[in-house]
Amino acid sequence: MKAARFFGGILFCLGLVLMAGSVGLCFWFRDADPWVRQIPQEAQACTEELIQALERGDFDAAADRMYGQPDLGVSGERTDDQTAMIWDAFARSMTFSFDGDCVYRDGGFCRDVTVTTLDVAALTESAGERAHTLLTQRVEQAQDMSELYDEENNFRQDLVDEVFYQAVEEAVEAQTDTVTDTATLQLVYEDGQWWVLPDQTFLRAISGGQA
Asked: Cβ atoms within 10 A of the Cβ of 1, count?
């Protein structure tokens, strides 16, 4: 019983010490606010390395700067030439501008960035409309049904591919609509280095709205 009281007394005193220490730390950090705002240069550089990788179209290098090194889903081969053309146009269109330096906010370091990209949804819609128009023209100009249909009375696949490729090509050349988003890059320090933890807005922006 005495032992239980003894350890109970120790734990009570330890609790008081920890509570006092916590209060002291709160006052210390309040007074040290200017110190907190001294953002580590490595953290700032991490965000810049991420953006530089994206600007040169190196998504693997960009993923290497993100926390957890996620698969951004853009490193594989495109399923067809038309999709590749749209993606290449989108990747080339991406521009970034930091909205100031890193700041200390909500208990951690972060940096806001504005992302402007080609409007993929508008581009895809335009390509579809152009494909319909081009296919209609090919039907009207056909001299023989074999130019249009296969043995199962479906449009020939080579014709569809040719028309859609031309439609995408024209849509890419004419597309001027863009999408602009402001995102936040959180910074995480782990394993002796800084990592960028992008928010969902940023991931959606660099994936053409697919994230």
From this structure: 5
**CB within 8 Å of 167: residues ≥ 6 apart:** 127, 128, 130, 131, 134
Per-position pLDDT tens, the chain of length 211: 433 332 233 233 333 333 333 333 333 334 444 444 567 899 999 999 999 999 998 999 999 999 998 887 664 455 688 989 999 999 999 999 999 999 999 889 999 999 999 999 999 999 999 999 999 999 999 888 888 888 888 999 999 999 999 999 999 999 889 999 999 999 999 989 999 999 999 999 998 876 5
Taking CA atoms, 60 is separated from 41, 64, 74, 118, 149, in Å, by 23, 6, 9, 21, 43
Contact assessment for residue 189 and residue 59, using Cβ atoms and an 8 Å cutoff: no
- Which of 113, 104, 107 shows the shortest CA–CA distance to 202? 113
- Do the beta carbons of residue 115 and residue 94 sit within 8 Å? yes
Tell me which residue has tokens 């050349």: 173
User: Taking a C-beta distance cutoff of 8 angstroms, is the pair 109, 41 a contact?
Assistant: no
For residues 181 and 114, is the Cβ–Cβ distance under 8 A?
yes
